[in-house]
Design goal:
The protein is an alpha+beta fold and about 375 residues long. The chain has three domains: about 100 residues, conserved putative lor/sdh protein from methanococcus maripaludis s2 fold, CATH 2.40.420; about 80 residues, Efflux pump adaptor protein, beta barrel domain (Elongation Factor Tu (Ef-tu), domain 3, Beta Barrel), CATH 2.40.30.170; about 120 residues, no CATH class. About 25% of the residues lie in helices and about 40% in strands. The protein is built from four helices and 24 strands. The protein has a six-stranded mixed beta sheet with strand order 18-19-20-24-1-23, with no helix packed on it. Strands 3-12-15-14-13-16 form a six-stranded antiparallel β-barrel. A four-stranded antiparallel beta sheet has the order 2-17-22-21, with no helix packed on it. Strand 18 and strand 19 form a beta hairpin. The longest helix has about 35 residues. It is elongated, with a radius of gyration of 44 Å. The relative contact order is 0.19.
Length: about 375
């Protein structure tokens, strides 16, 4: 064997030995990393769980409504004139009959005094003529003329008195006034808005419209009103428009309910839930348990983990059919059973197959 061949064999042996040593070192490093990784427990999450409850669900439609005060009026003056007295402050509580604005009536008072004087003179003339009529000292025509003058003067006095009363603007009912501000010495043109009065009380009206396909609601039916101010409360339909609106193809309704919270915020927006069909069986779960992605709505059902796992449960993704989500609860028609344990609070942290620890069972409805 030549020296060149021996040299190549030695070189190959050294190269192979180096590769083997490097491979062994890398294998040892990878094995150590795998062993180190396996020393950590499998990731898990902790959630609050709940159990579906069978409950009859009644399909509803939700519409936007407006809170309307039972008594409300925009006050304005009929006659022009200067202001001599202001009887209310902005946002003030006023009583029935309270003077709101008194306009200058000095000219009308003078005219009233003159009309009263003419009436008194005509009354005396009429009395004399009636006494003289029996002795044929005056004619019947004179008595009739005196009677007509008395009645005309009385009518003039009543007309002027009516003008005086129109210039004294009073509150028609106990209410709270708007924020308009007036001062004595100002001038009111005819038809000026003085203020808006909103009656106070516990009862309010809620006005809403329903699409014509859901317009089977009748006067006396019950609806549910929901607002940020008063939560949920039942209301009774007290009025229905006689026809479908031509532009919106909806029917307007008015419902009444006793709610001091809503009575304090007339004009506020609320939601009205109206039953649209007969009750049907459903499963009630907490709304936070229902998640949705590109594959549709789903919940995570907790199933027992295998023996030796670092948690009691594993998450199992379960597609569901949602009938409706209302406030804190969701109504499902399929996908879960009453005995299932589902993730409620914290369900957003889960994925299919993840280990899960149960923190607590949610109590109350839907638990």
């Amino acid at each position: 064997m030549s020296k060149t061949t021996k040299r190549w064999i030695l070189t190959a042996a050294v190269w192979i030995g180096t590769v083997v040593i490097l491979g062994f070192i890398k294998f040892s490093q990878i094995s150590a990393a795998i062993a180190f990784g396996e020393s950590f427990p499998e990731p898990s999450e902790t959630v609050i769980t709940a159990q579906p409850v069978r409950e009859n669900y009644r399909p509803q439609t939700r519409v936007v409504a407006e809170v309307v005060p039972v008594r409300s009026v925009t006050m304005s003056n009929e006659l022009a004139g200067a202001i001599v007295e202001v009887g209310f402050a902005p946002g003030d509580r006023v009583s029935e009959g309270q003077v709101m604005i008194r306009q200058d009536t000095s000219e009308e008072l003078a005219l009233l005094a003159a009309a009263n004087a003419r009436e008194a003179l005509a009354e005396r003339t009429l009395d004399r003529n009636e006494n003289l009529l029996g002795g044929s000292a005056v004619s019947r025509q004179a008595v009739d003329d005196a009677l007509a003058q008395r009645d005309a003067a009385r009518a003039e006095a009543q007309r002027v008195q009516a003008i005086i009363e129109k210039k004294t603007i009073r509150a028609p009912f106990a209410a709270r006034s708007g924020l308009e501000r007036w001062e004595p010495g100002g001038y009111l043109d005819a038809g000026s808005v003085i203020t808006t009065l909103v009656g106070e009380g516990d009862e309010v009206w809620v006005d809403f419209s329903l699409p014509q396909q859901h317009a089977g609601v009748a006067v006396g039916d019950s609806v549910t009103v929901h607002s940020d101010h008063a939560g949920r409360a039942p209301a009774t339909v007290i009025a229905r428009a006689p026809q479908v609106d031509a532009s919106s193809r909806a029917v307007r309704y008015r419902a009444a309910l006793a709610s001091p919270e809503l009575a304090a915020v007339p004009g506020a927006i609320a939601a009205v839930f109206v039953n649209t069909d007969d009750p049907r069986p459903a499963l009630k779960v907490p709304a936070v348990a229902v998640r949705e992605d590109t594959f549709g709505p789903h919940v995570f059902v907790l199933i027992p983990a295998e023996s030796g796992a670092d948690a009691r449960f594993r998450a199992s993704r379960r597609s569901v059919e949602v009938l409706r989500i209302e406030a804190e609860f969701a109504f499902l028609s399929a996908g879960v059973e009453p005995g299932d344990t589902i993730a409620a609070q914290g369900s957003f942290k889960l994925r299919d197959g993840l280990l899960v620890n149960q923190s607590a069972v949610r109590s109350g409805p839907g638990s």
